[in-house]
Design brief:
single chain, 17 strands, six-stranded parallel beta sheet, Rossmann fold, about 375 residues
């Protein structure tokens, strides 16, 4: 990939930059602006070089949500930001974009409001490309999507990688030739999307710990009662993994019924209980693995933290922050907890990606990265 630092002349050039500002929100308020801050180095670099910066982003997946709350937060870092609220191809939008001056930064409204975006429509890609002279992808976390503002537009303009995208690729690529002992921690849900990753790292890592809702599929595969816990539809193909000596499952769990929570062994769950976190003995087990590891890769929370069961994930994050291992942590929910705990500077690298991180680790590339080559 060519980096923005490979562009010889930026002064006076209109640069379309795909960023990911799909931040977690509640009641119209931003809960974590990690992704916003991650894009700032690229924006500042282009701005200082005299480019005219036009940001493209999305929020939510409903084609309705507005980026206005994001623009308000972004103005905290870029006071002169111009948020364009009119539709992308309106006369008002065209008038604003073509009147921008060197060093100006503007942001378009939610690009997923346009039907051609997710369809990767060639005509839509050509339409938005007319606003720019150069295209920059700095949205690693959406680069697993073959959308018009990620893939299609690269056929229309000279295309480059932003600083955050370069960092993501360089840092995550360390997982392909890690130092040992190598500990891989996988949490979250959606077992079927993580099968390639489990297969890969059971081969490459020294220990693979499975937590979160994914662990429930393994318990079910062992014949344990999982009660009302979240599991995959049908029977997940977990039995082939049991023979691997690198696989580590929780040795105790937090099972909940109503307002009652029990710290018990996985085979002691009752039919009316739900597994919502790993137990205290498992946290201690993980702490021991973390302290002896040289390289740690983690994606996804170990419990249902949004329902108040994030204490185990927080404790494990603190263990990693104290360890001497080179560490990489990704997954939107996990990253939000890192921000809450204020330990981002003690983690080797914090990835902006969720699904994109998983896909990159499994495949070594993404559609948005391929499009830049």
């Amino acid at each position: 990939m060519k980096s923005i630092k490979d562009i010889e002349v930026l002064k006076g050039k209109r640069v379309l930059v795909r960023v990911d500002f799909n931040v977690p929100m509640k009641d119209g308020k931003i809960l974590d602006d990690f992704r916003i801050k991650a894009a700032l180095p690229t924006i500042e670099y282009l701005k200082k070089k005299g480019a005219i910066v036009i940001l493209m982003a999305h929020i939510g997946d409903d084609a309705v949500s507005s980026l206005k709350p994001v623009s308000i937060r972004l103005k905290k870092y870029l006071p002169n930001l111009n948020f364009i609220e009119s539709t992308i191809f309106s006369d008002e939008t065209k008038k604003i974009i073509f009147s921008l001056k060197n060093g100006d930064v503007s942001m378009l409204e939610n690009i997923r409001r346009e039907i051609g975006e997710k369809k990767n429509s060639p005509s839509f890609a050509r339409g938005i490309s007319r606003y720019g002279d150069i295209y920059v992808n700095d949205a690693f976390s959406v680069s697993h999507r073959a959308h018009a503002s990620v893939v299609g537009i690269t056929k229309c303009l000279p295309s480059y990688a932003g600083l955050q995208l370069i960092d993501e690729v360089n840092e995550l690529s360390k997982a392909f030739s890690p130092k040992h002992p190598f500990l891989f921690i996988l949490g979250g849900s959606k077992f079927e999307t993580k099968i390639p990753l489990i297969k890969k790292f059971l081969r490459d890592a020294d220990e693979v710990f499975i937590g979160g809702a994914i662990a429930n599929d393994f318990f079910k595969g062992k014949g344990y009662e999982v009660g009302t816990s979240l599991v995959s539809d049908g029977i997940a193909p977990v039995k082939s993994f049991f023979k691997n000596k690198n696989l580590i499952l929780p040795i105790d769990v937090v099972a909940v019924k109503g307002s009652t929570a029990r710290n018990i062994k996985p085979d002691e769950v009752q039919s009316d209980e739900s597994i919502l976190d790993i137990g205290k003995n498992t946290v201690e087990l993980l702490d021991g693995l973390i302290q002896k590891a040289s390289f740690i890769l983690w994606n996804g929370p170990l419990g249902k933290y949004e329902s108040g069961f994030g204490s185990a994930t927080e404790k494990v994050l603190k263990s990693i922050a104290k360890s001497k291992a080179n560490s990489i942590v990704g997954g939107g929910d996990t990253v939000s907890l890192i921000t809450k705990l204020k330990i981002g500077d003690k983690i080797g690298f914090v990835s902006t990606g969720g699904g994109a991180t998983l896909d990159f680790l499994a495949k070594g590339t993404l559609p948005g990265i391929k499009a830049l080559k």
